[in-house]
Amino acid sequence: MTETRWNQSNHERIDTSEIQQRRVVIENSHGEKLVGVLHDTGSTETVVICHGIHSSKDRIPMLTIANVFESAKISSFRFDFAGNGESQGSFQYGNYRREAEDLRSVLQHLRGENREISAIIGHSKGGSVVLLYAAKYKDVQTVVNISGRFFLERGMEWRLGKDYFNKIKENGFIDVRNRKGKFEYRVTEESLMDRLTTNTHEACLSIHENCSACNRSIRIRQIHKESQTVSN
User: Fold this and answer.
1) Where are the alpha helices (DSSP H) in the chain?
2) What is the DSSP letter of 227?
3) Are residues 39 and 77 in the same domain?
4) Which superkingdom, per the lineage (predicted)?
5) Is 136 in the same domain as 210?
6) Residue range 50-97, pLDDT digits in tens
7) 110-146 as b/e, with b when 16 or more CB fall inside 10 Å?
């Protein structure tokens, strides 16, 4: 499909006729199928975009990021973590480290197609995931965290309700509903503890330690909008 867009930064027309979007299915380490979309500009340089909690690759932030890289003629890949969007698996409230392994499967697949991963970008929960990935694997030069929560033990009352810890201890789970009362997802004690035991600060320190042993430094970008509440 041919389309012409405006690049608002320099008011130039962008011809997208050479950009191809291709649906890609990748199997993770648990045998689940992860579904993603490759924005192929013809360049093997590729950035990978990770979504936030209970979200998907098709939400506006991920589409916007992909479009920005299209404008720069850089390929990108946005995908659904297991249990989200079109991907197989069950949604879990925690799963930070497991989602980092999903990201690992994606990067290995793309590198198998001779793509150079120039950056991993995470929005909201995805921001925490890319930091955990970088701390463990240190094989991506640029890591971008957009509005990822740093202290994961904070910010849960508005989503889970007051006294959520005692309630989940008593019942084994909490059902999260939207403002209209419609069920969205279940938070189990196991998934809650996964979040509470994920230490983003420790991961960030590990990235710096790893950098001193690398031949090239890892650039970390943390982007936050102070005036906006981030639900992750």
Assistant:
1) 60-71, 96-112, 125-137, 157-160, 164-171, 189-196, 200-211
2) T
3) yes
4) Eukaryota
5) yes
6) 999 999 999 999 999 999 999 999 999 999 999 999 999 999 998 999
7) beeeebebbbbbbbbbbbbbbbbbbbbebebbbbbbb
Query: Within this chain, do residues 132 and 22 fall inside the same structural domain, yes or no?
Result: yes
Within-domain flag for 10: no
pTM of the model: 0.83
Pair 217, 109 in one domain: yes
Domain carrying residue 95: 17-152+199-223
Burial annotation 165-194 (CB, 10 A radius, 16+ → b, else e): eeebeeeeebeeeeeeeeeebebbeebbeb
As for how many domains the chain has, the answer is 2
- Asked whether the CA dihedral 8, 10, 11, 17 is positive or negative, the reply is negative
Q: State the CATH number of the domain containing residue 84.
A: 3.40.50.1820
